[in-house]
Amino acid sequence: MINPQTDRVLITGAAGAIGSTLRRGLRDHWRHLRLTDIRPVPDLADNEEFVVADITDRPAVESMMRDVRAVVHLAGIVGSYTLEDLFRVNARGLFDVLEAARLAGVERIIFASSNHAFGCYPITEKVSPALPPRPDGLYGVFKVWGETMLRNYYDRHGIRSVSLRIGTFRPQPIDQRSLATWLSPADAVQLVDVALRHPDPGCMVVNGYSNNTRLKTVDPNWATLGYKPNDNAEDYRAALRAQGVDVDAPDRDVWEWPEHGGSFPRTPEKPPR
Ligand SMILES: NC(=O)c1ccc[n+]([C@@H]2O[C@H](COP(=O)([O-])OP(=O)(O)OC[C@H]3O[C@@H](n4cnc5c(N)ncnc54)[C@H](O)[C@@H]3O)[C@@H](O)[C@H]2O)c1
């Protein structure tokens, strides 16, 4: 278990959407938070320190790992990307963070993986972390690679980890797919909190959703982790309908996008240079 009173936790990508939410949710209980991002992080609390750095700057990453017991690795390229940036940050940068953590004696890593690690499964099928990955693009491929690295770090070096296959993290569900895949801010905080506190997660992969009525997941490892999500995308059904979202078709298991990954499996990959 990582001790919220005594242990230092490093959060990468702390200026981002999930990082900002985690800061707000964790800082009252976690006494020593070190934050890093390439962008500024505003309004530091007394128990937060901030290091501005590019995650691909290995000396900077090694230095920020000093006295850190656990890492929550969120930094990465999200959304539209060039192949060069994806390789540089989500592959090489991920490697540098994991290696620097290993060399510094970090005991636990929480990794922001993604449901794009299994985005090619049909949305009508329930997915589980126990199934073979089916990434829906290079973004998902590197998330699977990160999970695989962490498997290797556990088997060879005993570093415990929880990879979170995060669905649609937003303040509210945004579309039909997120009726199944939404992860609310409060549930995201709980997910990371229990992943840090768990006495021994081994090398666990967990699906990161809220308690949505239309979940398409089975055995998401929530009971093992002790995660009990409270929010439900269904509570926003009327609001989504008012925005023109067809919220009724999923009752018949008819979905706008036929795979878990939404539009990703059908988006052309960036051409190589
Ligand atoms: N938001 C979602 O729905 C979702 C779903 C699945 C997975 N994830 C994963 O969760 C993580 C956080 O996502 P988010 O929604 O907060 O994204 P975000 O874009 O809001 O935050 C990512 C942060 O990483 C930082 N960053 C990017 N490149 C960097 C670099 N080279 N060095 C240092 N910092 C860098 C950015 O400045 C940004 O603050 C990402 O790894 C993403 O792949 C997010």
Describe what is shown at a glance.
The chain is α/β, with parallel strands linked by helices.
Structural account:
It is a single chain. The chain is α/β, with parallel strands linked by helices. It has helices at 17-26, 58-64, 83-103, 138-157, 178-181, 185-197, 222-225, 237-242; strands at 8-12, 32-37, 48-52, 70-73, 108-114, 160-166, 168-169, 182-183, 203-208. It has one domain: Rossmann fold (3-Layer(aba) Sandwich), CATH 3.40.50.720. The chain has a seven-stranded parallel β-sheet, sandwiched between helices. Strands 7-8 form a two-stranded parallel ribbon. Helix 1 (17-26) packs across helix 6 (185-197) and helix 3 runs parallel beside helix 4. The mean pLDDT is 96. The structure holds nicotinamide-adenine-dinucleotide. Nicotinamide-adenine-dinucleotide binds at residues 13, 15-19, 37-39, 54-56, 74-78, 89, 93, 112, 114, 166, 168-169.
Please give the CATH class: Alpha Beta
Instruction: Name the poorly predicted regions.
Output: none
CATH superfamily: NAD(P)-binding Rossmann-like Domain
Cα-atom Rg, whole angstroms? 18 Å
Largest sheet: 7 strands, parallel
In what range is the share of β-strand residues? 15-25%
CATH architecture: 3-Layer(aba) Sandwich
* Widest sheet, order of strands: 3-2-1-4-5-6-9
- Small molecules held by this entry: nicotinamide-adenine-dinucleotide
CATH fold-level topology:
Rossmann fold
How many distinct beta strands? 9
Helix content: 25-40%
What is the number of independent domains?
Answer: 1
What overall form do the CA principal axes indicate? globular
Our measurement of the CA-to-CA distance between the termini, rounded to an integer number of angstroms, reads: 45 Å
